[in-house]
Amino acid sequence: MGKKELLDKLSESELAHLLYHKRRQRRQQRLRRLKADGRVVDIPGIQPPNDAPPVIMPYLLPEDKPAEPAADLAPTGGIRWRWVVNKFFLFVEITAVLSFIIIGITLWNTNNELNQELSQVQRLQSQALAVPTPTQEPLIDVVILPGGHKPPVPGQSPQPGEAGDIPANLLPVINAYVPPPKPTPAPVQARRIQIPAIDIDAPVVQGMYDWEALKRGVAQKIGSAAPGQVGNMALAAHNDIYGELFRDLDQLKPGDEIVVSTGSQSYTYIVRETQIVEPTEVSVLDPTDWASATLISCYPYRVNTQRIVVFADLADS
Description:
30% of the residues lie in helices and 21% in strands. The longest helix has 52 residues, at 77-128. It has a domain at 111-170 and 187-314: Sortase (Sortase, Chain: A, Beta Barrel). Strand 7 and strand 8 (266-277) form a beta hairpin. The N and C termini lie far apart (141 Å). It is α+β, with helices and mostly antiparallel strands.
């Protein structure tokens, strides 16, 4: 039976169905050929019902317009240039941060080296028991404890961190004060201080508020008691500059020894207590009815907003 006879026997619906399949096969062949030539792209279609996989509808590009890659998939020259600029600025920022860190570490190490060198010089001077030249002390002791880590600037009002931060309302009192005369050097004056618990061995100089005296060692308040005598022997030193002599005062405990020597004798004081006070708490410098010693420095370390005070009594008093 020939094809013609078979077609004659088919109904109209069967012929339509056969024609549909023929056209569909030709169309799929044509789409595969065009897709192989790069002239067809797939566009997501509408999601069919019943959670079926999405249908991909083919889209035929005009023959005179070749397919172009999506703009967000192919990097352009401008995007590549921005990437280079961003990486450059990131490198600059990282370099700047590392430079600041290196500078900070260098300054810190330099400061520590200077303090160590000065501490060694002071220790040698203490061991030689050199008698320092007495200096005249200014008024500051009548209103505020010694401290601060910045030397005062002549001709300017005290600034934060300078010479104990003198309050403005106390400046008239300071200006009207007449300092005591320079003491005459004597064998009974303190010349050396040793604190084994915190490894201190330094010379003692006269002039608690004299910055030049504080550069040379631990400074004694002029007019305070001599070693071994009844009264309060007031001693001060910096905690973060000039050798950092009193940096570790907060480590002293009751019972620790403080040895203060004159030109002929040594006296041992026993730590009684430690207090943290405000700079204006000058009552810690008041005289006592027994032989005592008061050690003063700034606190906390490198902040210096308060004062640490260590009280000690003569061992045999």
